[in-house]
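job 3f2a | input accepted
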Amino acid sequence: MATLVIDIGNSYIKTAVFNVDELVWVQSSVTIDEKLIEQIAKQYKPEKAIFSTVKTNNESWETSISKHIPLVKFDSSMATSIKNHYRTPQTLGLDRLAAVIGAHAMYPDQANLVIDAGTCITYDAVDQGANYYGGSISPGLNMRYQALNYYTASLPLVNPNAGFNEDKGYDTTTAIRSGVQNGIRFEVLGFIQDSFSINTDTNIILTGGDSIFFDTLLKNSIFAPHIKNEPHLVLKGLNAVTLHHND
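job 3f2a | predicted structure (247 res):
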């Protein structure tokens, strides 16, 4: 049984097809190609579709997809596989919620800390009892570089460098790079350490566009054995929602 899954983020749109819980096709783009959706419908014959979006307005592609495949929009009421204790579930980012659902589906009965490194960096934990209480939102890697350039008169716009491993900068460019990248490293390690103070068997699940960069930062840390890279975690979470609703 095939399912079409669409995750509409701040910067990119991920479209995927699952055969039950197996990811068989995925693509990242800046827009939804309605012709591509028609091709997917013919090739994979998905029986249903689910999408999550950070946007609020209805798009024409929703009507287009619905002509071919029954389509549902993910919302917090569909997160029935976890116990959501967030005080304002209606304001919880659906990408964060889907990522937590994906983590729990892939590693059930385990404690999981999801670090989603995208436009923003989010930290969300679900414990071994499937309880989700909330998390944290922080500026993302590129946002930090851009903010230093935008809000100052003389600091240049510096690009991220995954190979940077100095503890301090020796000129303005490397000083910015040290502040941003070492700052993120200390931040990430702090959140991980906090999770480990509760459960030392916590899985650290990295996802999002900058997750590979974070893996580089953490590969030499004591937490490296616990780190798992799941670039399609949100998609897997959305698919898990459809599977759970079939039970």
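job 3f2a | Residues 10 and 117 are 12 Å apart (CA to CA).
job 3f2a | closed
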